[in-house]
Design a protein that fits this description.
- The chain has helices at about 5-10, 60-65, 70, 105-110, 115-135, 160-165, 195-210, 220-230, 240-250, 260-265, 300-325, 330-340, 350-360, 370-375, 385-440, 445-450, and strands spanning about 20-30, 30-40, 45-50, 80-90, 90-95, 100-105, 145-150, 155.
- The chain has about 450 residues and is an alpha+beta fold.
- The chain folds into 4 domains: about 5-95, Phosphorylase Kinase, domain 1, CATH 3.30.200.20; about 100-265, Orthogonal Bundle (Transferase(Phosphotransferase), domain 1); about 305-375, no CATH class; about 425-453.
- The radius of gyration is 38 Å and the shape is flat.
- The two termini are about 65 Å apart.
- Mean pLDDT is about 75; it is low at about 165-175, about 275-300 and about 340-375.
């Protein structure tokens, strides 16, 4: 691709046969866009010259351009039409209908839109996307920069281009959507038409608030927020737009609108068949759980908590061992007896056992018979260490240190001598080569050689 030659020659007559390039409209991920006039009829078009940075996949990109003939068959007032394709200086280009110099991104740079204007534009966007989905075409890169405006008329563009150029880039924001508008499932490359519905919800959110719902310092931070962080909608967003955004931007695709026509039906006041409610209603009769008590920095409460955690860990390890041991029944009985004996206080027993009961498949409560016959387990008394034992302990530690020191010395000497022999061998070989070279230069005359040395 001769981009240097392109920039020096694109204004020359006949650069694109039958067209005169007037001016540049903009540049983006997929290439350079120029406004051109068809010389025969004087009608304006937009020509996009595709950038393919990886030469290894350039041939595949050129082959994929043949699929544009299917996109060219789509005729909808809210879609940018595709008129023709070609190649110049090794650069592929696409000729599209001219949809205006302004994009929704430029309009949103001035702030949020009035509700009536946002409603009108968003309905046109949804109509264009619905037309794509009816032809089994998924955009995968819906964003305000790809929505072209001419007055109050909106057209969706760049559809199909994400598939063409995605293989020539490595980052997820290039070729497979933009992080600010990307659905969570796109992290695992499992997107479908409902991923476009998620992006529509983000676009509506930005049109009504003037900002995107999730921001961050990097692409991955934004993507993770789309995946995990709860959506917060400002109070300025009123029904029914609030409900539309909430449902479009649900984390799971099956919880969203299943088609763009459902969104259009809701905006136009027509009946809508949906499998899930528009807004999640809070469950009645369910009080929020109490906040956990924060342990003090000192005092008996902290000491009791530390002891309970240790006991809980010991019993948890016992339960895990019982699960893996062939004699698990014996250990399960011991575990049940330990719990029935109330090793922990009743107030904190459940919170400690809940972590390891599921792993061991133990009963949640002991039976009445076990409670009646269970006895508190007792540890065997610790043997007191004699005076000889106390003296023998430092002696063994000292001997262990001496042995470790001697072992380190022996190992170091072994390494030294091993390297010494290796160096001696290298020096010997070097001297022998020098002797042979010297002998060759002197004609292998032994007497002269030794005389010279």
């Amino acid at each position: 691709m001769d981009w240097e030659g392109f920039f020096t020659s694109y204004r020359k007559p006949g650069f694109i046969p039958g067209f005169e390039i007037v001016n540049k409209l903009g540049s983006g991920v997929f290439g350079e866009v120029y406004k051109a006039r068809k010389e025969s009829i004087g009608k304006f078009y937009a020509i996009k010259f595709l950038k393919v940075t990886d030469e290894r996949v350039s041939e595949a990109i050129f082959k994929e351009l043949d699929s544009l003939k299917f996109f060219a068959q789509i005729d909808h007032p809210n879609l940018v039409s595709i008129e023709d394709k070609g190649e110049v200086m090794g650069i592929p280009y696409i000729i599209m209908g001219y949809a205006g110099d302004e994009t929704l991104k430029k309009r949103l740079a001035q702030g949020a839109l009035p509700e009536s204007e946002a409603n009108e534009i968003f309905r046109q966007i949804c109509s264009g996307v619905a037309a794509l989905h009816e032809k089994s075409i998924i955009h995968f890169d819906l964003k305000p920069a790809n929505i072209f405006m001419k007055g109050h008329h909106a057209r969706v563009g760049d559809y199909g281009l994400s598939k063409l150029v995605s293989e020539s880039h490595m980052t997820m924001s290039i070729g497979r959507g933009t992080p600010y508008y990307m659905a969570p499932e796109m992290l695992t490359r499992k997107g479908d038409h409902r991923s476009d519905i998620y992006s529509l919800g983000v676009i509506l959110y930005e049109m009504l608030t003037g900002r995107v719902p999730f921001t961050g310092d990097s692409e991955w931070e934004v993507l993770r927020k789309h995946e995990n962080e709860k959506l917060e909608i400002p109070d300025v967003v009123k029904p029914p737009y609030r409900g539309i955004i909430q449902r479009c931007m649900r984390k799971k695709p099956e919880d969203r609108f299943q088609s763009v026509n459902e969104i259009l039906a809701l905006l136009e006041g027509r009946p809508m068949t949906a499998s899930t409610p528009l807004v999640e209603s809070p469950k009645r009769g369910c009080a929020p759980p109490p906040l956990p008590r924060k342990p003090g920095k000192c005092g008996p409460f902290r000491k009791r908590t530390r002891v309970e955690k240790r006991l809980g860990g010991e019993l948890g390890r016992l339960a895990e061992f019982a699960r893996r041991n062939p004699k698990s029944e014996e250990y399960r009985a011991e575990f049940a007896a330990a719990r029935a004996a109330k090793v922990l206080s009743p107030a904190n027993q459940d919170s400690v056992y809940i972590d390891f009961e599921d792993a061991a498949d133990t009963p949640t409560a002991a039976s009445d018979e076990q409670t009646a016959v269970a006895e508190k387990p007792s540890r065997p008394p610790r043997r007191r260490r004699s005076l000889i034992g106390w003296l023998f302990r430092p002696v063994t530690a000292l001997l262990g240190g001496v042995i470790a020191l001697l072992r380190g010395i022996v190992r170091g000497l072994g390494v030294f001598f091993a390297n010494f022999l290796r160096y001696a061998l290298v020096i010997g070989i070097t001297l022998a080569l020098a002797f042979l070279i010297h002998a060759a230069l002197r004609g292998f005359d032994g007497e002269l050689i030794f005389a010279g040395w």
